[in-house]
Amino acid sequence: MHTASFLRRVFLGFTVASFVKYNTAIFEELFNDTYDYFANYSDSYEGLENFTPLPQTSSEEYIPPDGDFCDISGLTTEYGLTPVGCNVTCLSGNYSLLEDGKLCINYTEEEAQQLKDFTNLTCPLGVCLDGICENCDRSIWCWKKPVMSIGVPN
């Protein structure tokens, strides 16, 4: 065997061995980190509300004593779902009015239905008074979702 050929084989052998040893060390480090992560993993979601606060919601919807389901059209605002107007309609065909002092969007239901879905708008804010959404000379960012029906606010 020639000396040059022998030296090439020795050099190549050392290079491959070093490469394998280096990659094995990296793999073991990654494997240990992954193992440590899963060994210490917990399904506890305690404290996550500090990172992803959920809006305060109520699962209770207003259901009158006769059991009829009632709703009102609403738009999404920084205050959550805000009713359009102050008239509540029920499946039976009956209607009622929101309490005085409730925030409302001062649009008719027809005007609100014509708004383009998911488009930020400036909407006139009002307050319900005797079943009428009285403009309070303030505006609020709002947008319409394809389904506008919301439960009656408590």
UniProtKB/TrEMBL annotation:
Statement: the UniProt record of this protein carries the keyword Nucleotide-binding: no
Key words of the record: Disulfide bond, Glycoprotein, Secreted, Signal
Biological source species: Amblyomma maculatum
Protein name, UniProt field: Evasin
InterPro entries linked: EVA_Class_A (IPR045797)
Subcellular location: Secreted
GO-annotated molecular function: C-C chemokine binding
Primary location recorded for the protein, binned into one broad class: secreted
